[in-house]
Design brief:
mainly beta, HSP40/DNAj peptide-binding domain, Alpha-Beta Plaits, about 160 residues, 4-stranded mixed sheet
Length: about 160
């Protein structure tokens, strides 16, 4: 199976891709995976550590060809508030629940979740459902992912 030789960041590569691979947020954060492009080309991503692929990045294959990364649209919700104090409070509550959150200026973007959406409305947030690529912040420890609950000694109950 042909392998990815290099990951090139969006805006840093030139050339014409032979195909595109469309991936959701989870599938764009991988160390090792067999992927299939839209033209049927299968290839192996095998990196020493997990990489966070972003929309417009390029995967250079061993044969010198390129596969362009496309971020798949997902069911999300944009959150705004009447003022920055309310938006900061909402952001704190989302962070306290370790929810992947994308920061878009005066808007927060999360995955659709009726329980969280209800909480946001109770905190004074306004919700607008969207279908868009999801590229949340990587968290304090980076690497494109937020962390799980096994890292500290208190409960979120």
């Amino acid at each position: 199976m042909i392998r990815v030789k290099a990951v090139k960041l969006a805006g840093t590569w030139t050339g014409k891709p032979i195909a595109r691979v469309t991936l959701d947020r989870e599938d764009r954060y991988r160390r090792r995976a067999v992927l299939s492009a839209d033209n049927g080309t299968s290839f192996l991503l095998d990196e020493p550590t997990a990489v966070h692929l972003r929309h417009g990045d390029c995967l250079e294959l061993e044969d010198g060809t390129f596969i362009e990364v496309v971020a798949k649209c997902e069911d999300l919700v944009d959150i705004t508030a009447g003022d920055s104090a309310h938006l900061i409070k909402i952001a704190w509550h989302l962070g306290n629940r370790h929810l992947p959150t994308q920061l878009l200026g005066n808007t927060l973007r999360i995955r659709r979740d009726h329980v969280i959406e209800s909480m946001v409305e109770q905190l004074g947030g306004r919700l607008v459902p969207v279908s868009a690529p999801f590229d949340p912040e990587g968290g304090a420890y980076g690497r494109g992912q937020t962390h799980g609950h096994g890292h500290h000694g208190h409960s979120h109950g």
